[in-house]
Design goal:
This protein is mainly α. It is 67% helix and 0% strand. It starts with a helix and ends in a 5-residue tail after the last helix.
Length: 102
């Protein structure tokens, strides 16, 4: 089943894009890019340390490949998706609660 995990992440990202387009939330801006970069750097560093120390490992049956130091290529996409999803949820809550954007 290699590739299923990757396909699921990509399909989820498409869903986020469609939600943003439909509701015109303005998700894709500089602040989102900065948040993605910060999350990627921090969590990939943690993943690299954790995988080299044996704290966790990816199942090779589910990922496309496992790159040294033990991180699958799907991991950066997953981290970007989680970041974008969190920002999307924030923007949705802001819109429906009536908050002001800084």
């Amino acid at each position: 089943m290699p590739g299923l995990y990757l396909a699921t992440i990509l399909l989820s990202l498409v869903g986020v894009i469609l939600i943003d387009r439909r509701l015109a939330l303005g998700l894709w801006r500089r602040a989102t890019a900065v948040a993605i970069v910060v999350v990627e750097v921090a969590f990939l560093a943690f993943d690299a340390i954790g995988s080299t120390r044996g704290w966790f490992a990816s199942d090779p049956r589910w990922v496309v490949a496992i790159m040294p130091p033990g991180i699958p290529p799907e991991e950066p996409l997953l981290l970007a998706f989680i970041t974008v999803w969190a920002i999307l949820l924030y923007l949705l809550a802001e819109r429906f609660v009536g908050g002001e954007r800084p």
